[in-house]
Amino acid sequence: MDDARSYFYDLADALQRMLRPGEVFTASLQGEDSDFARLNGNRVRQAGHVRQLVLSLDWIEGRRHASAKLDLSGDLNADRALLEEQTGALRAQRAHLEDDPFLLYATELRNSETAQGDGAISSVDAVRETLEAADGLDLVGLYAGGAVVRGFANSFGQRNWYTAPSFNLDWSAYLERDKAVKGGYAGFAWDTSALRARFDAARHELDVLKRPPRALAPGSYRAYLAPAALQEILTLLAWGGFGLKSHRTKQTSLIRMVENGRRLHPEVTLWEHHAGGVAPPFTPSGHVKPDKVVLIESGRYRDCLADPRSAKEYGQPVNAALEYPQSLQLAPGALAADEVLPRLERGLYLNNLWYANFSDRNECRITGMTRFACFWVEDGKIVAPIEPLRFDDSLYRMLGENLLGLTRAPEFLFESNTYFSRSVASWSLPGALVEGMRFTL
User: How many domains does the chain fold into?
Assistant: First the structure.
């Protein structure tokens, strides 16, 4: 979408000419040029393409401001007229608004143009290779691929542009009824051999799902949490766990780490990796993000995510667009993939978790269900699927005192949400081997 960049800059120049003395504007562009394919029975059942550009505009005078979000048509003359009409409406609204004490926007010029990934494969080839690799499987899922773009401009002359061609294949291979193996494949560079390896592993797990399921009694079991299972836990933790506002108002689920010195395992280092995800390296207010914000370092809490409003309120620098991770990364450990089952020896191999929620937020205790292909392991071998189990355990145990190790090779996971637009949230996570994980029913 290189043409979108020059188009956005032309609109920014037009906005500059609409300014009156004492006014400031910020303009943030969100766009995509995406292909979608919905799969069922390992066939393409629905395919489509979305190209959209949405402009968020804030018209400011002093500490009063009014904002609007506009769908752009792509016709420069028509969109200029739309912006001129909208700025008049924003001025009229602003006249009736109070000062905003937490308004904060970038004033230091930091221009940038960044590309993440190279989009080396077309969506047509990606879907074709997927169908070939999944031959013989009852595959359902969604493929989304193409470029996501973000832009920023303000009346001080700052211009930022970001594009990220990427893909995300979210799929399940079904055996029968509710028995399925769920997986995904996402990233910036397509690797056919890696895709085939995932479907080969799914075929093996489907064979195990044919065996009679093992019903386990409530209790504590050694467990391996695959990256997708760990993602469910960390996604829940992200709900207020790392934000500056939630910390200052004592609503964070990690309050015991902050106030009582609780720690996770020394192997746990968690950061928001702005430079390594799909999200842009700048905020809608024009603040350039640091490459990395270390949230937990060697088991100790370190820094918070501060968006512009919280940064203004608490006198901290802006380091994120949201106080919710968008590019969360957990440092890998030393456990090789072929060591997982021997080290697990006897216990649970958990590919996925479901419906995670807090059972005691202050103690960071989490409950949820096993889902899809989860297995019982004996003598270092997968022997049977398990009936669904509910776990209820504290993060301080699972990733703290009871953590036995993290795997060496992390997996790149994308959020598959496409509400209004493709999500830019991502995770880079290893698997985790845990001693004595608690299951209640």
Answer: 2
328-332 mean pLDDT = 98
The predicted structure's pLDDT at residue 124: 95
Cα gap 147→348, rounded to integer Å: 39
Kindly state the average pLDDT of the residues 69-87.
96
Predicted model pTM: 0.94
CA pair distance 29, 329, nearest whole angstrom = 26
Where among 208, 235, 262 does a domain terminate? 208
The pLDDT score that the predictor gives to residue 375 is 97
Which residues have CB under 8 Å from 385's CB, separation 6+?
179, 208, 209, 211, 213, 214, 373, 374, 375, 376
Instruction: Tell whether 131 and 203 lie within a shared domain.
Output: yes
Residues 179 and 221 reside in one and the same domain: no
Q: Are 161 and 288 in contact (CB under 8 A)?
A: no
* 296: exposed, middle or buried (Cβ count in 10 Å: 0-12, 13-18, 19+): buried
Mean pLDDT of the chain: 96
Look-up of token digits 């397509």: 190
Residues 179 and 252 in one domain: no
What distance lies between CA 23 and its chain's CA centroid?
35
For residue 253, give the nearest of 196, 193, 296 by alpha carbon.
296
The whole-number pLDDT of residue 177 equals 84
Task: Indicate which CATH number applies to the domain containing 24.
Answer: 3.30.2290.10
Q: Are residues 335 and 359 in the same domain?
A: yes
User: Among the three residues 180, 208, 236, which one is the final residue of a domain in this structure?
Assistant: 208
By DSSP bridging, strand 112-115 and strand 159-176 are: parallel
Question: Containing domain of residue 395, as a range?
Answer: 211-439
For residues 13 and 83, give the distance between their C-alpha atoms in angstroms, rounded to a whole number: 12
